[in-house]
Amino acid sequence: MAVRNLPQSPSYAGVEALRKAGGLVVAGSLFWLVHLGFTMAGVLLFAVYAGMNNAEGAAIAGAILFAGALIAATVGAFLLAGGAFFEGAVARGISAGATPGMRVHPAMGKVEQRGDRAGFCLLAFGACGIFAGILLVALGDLGPTLRPGSVLGIILGVGLVWAAASAVFAIAAADLTDSLDSIGRHVPSLALRPAPNLRGYAYLYLAGTLALILPLLPYSLAPPSPLQTAVCFFLFGLVIQGVIVPLAGFATFVRLTRFGLEATRVGFPPPIPMGWPPLPPAGAK
């Protein structure tokens, strides 16, 4: 339902900002799909090599694929953050001409606030990804010289950083979903489909991350037998983070990619007719 006093057709600047936001959302979604693919492949290959009692192969395959997943998620978060920040420009463009003397129409004020908050949270998520990558590089360089307890401590530190990042991502997903959905709901002339619900996926992503990290906490305090460790890992982490989360993510980010593509194709408003007749051609009498 359109909001009273909002123009039925947004300004040229609002459409241009929406197109840019849509392009960044598409790019960020594609990188996130790559992240999901690397995550699923890493967990499944780790399980296969571990089942074959090939610890070295499991470590190498897992490290390579998880590093790729980390890089893809970090880049995707920064791109989605750019799209979220552009929503403020979309809100101001939609408001243009509807509220003389006001910067943003009240109906669009929450869109701008939520877009900015989602952008900052996604930037924080990307920063956590960079920090986690630094820890992993340090682990690769110093791993042979460290005691097993120290190696486990670094891995646990990376996991806790990623768990904090996942919680921040859940906040960003809720704000991004609400702001994208509000734009199409308040201005029906844009003909945008409802934005996909990133909130549910983000909560599942957080649960999967915690399922991988929590079994390491008791192990770091009082190491159980290798069998108990494997059982904890497979029960809490493998099924959720390796299968359920990627499948849910694929469905969500494919829909978000389609939403972004539609936003990039939103038509510009028709030119405003002038209040006087056009000038006659040169030389006409």
Give the helices and strands, then pairings.
Blueprint: H1 12-51, H2 55-95, H3 106-142, H4 148-186, H5 198-213, H6 216-221, H7 226-264
Task: Describe this protein with a few key phrases.
7 helices; disordered N terminus; mainly alpha; 285 residues
Provide a descriptive summary of the structure in words.
76% of the residues lie in helices and 0% in strands. By secondary structure, it is mainly alpha-helical. Helix 2 (55-95) packs parallel to helix 4 (148-186) and helix 4 packs antiparallel against helix 5 (198-213). The chain starts with 11 loop residues before the first helix and ends in a 21-residue tail after the last helix. Residues 1-8, 99-103 and 272-277 have low confidence and may be disordered.
H/I helix tally? 7
Sheet bearing the most strands, described? Answer: none
Structural class of the secondary structure composition?
A: mainly alpha
Give the uncertain stretches in residue-range form. 1-8, 99-103, 272-277
What separation lies between the terminal Cα atoms? 51 Å
Task: Identify the overall geometry.
Answer: elongated
Radius of gyration: 24 Å
Q: Indicate the mean pLDDT.
A: 75
**What is the helix/strand order?**
HHHHHHH
How much helicity do the residues have?
A: over 70%
Q: How many domains comprise the coordinates?
A: 1
Number of strands: 0
β-sheet strand percentage: under 5%
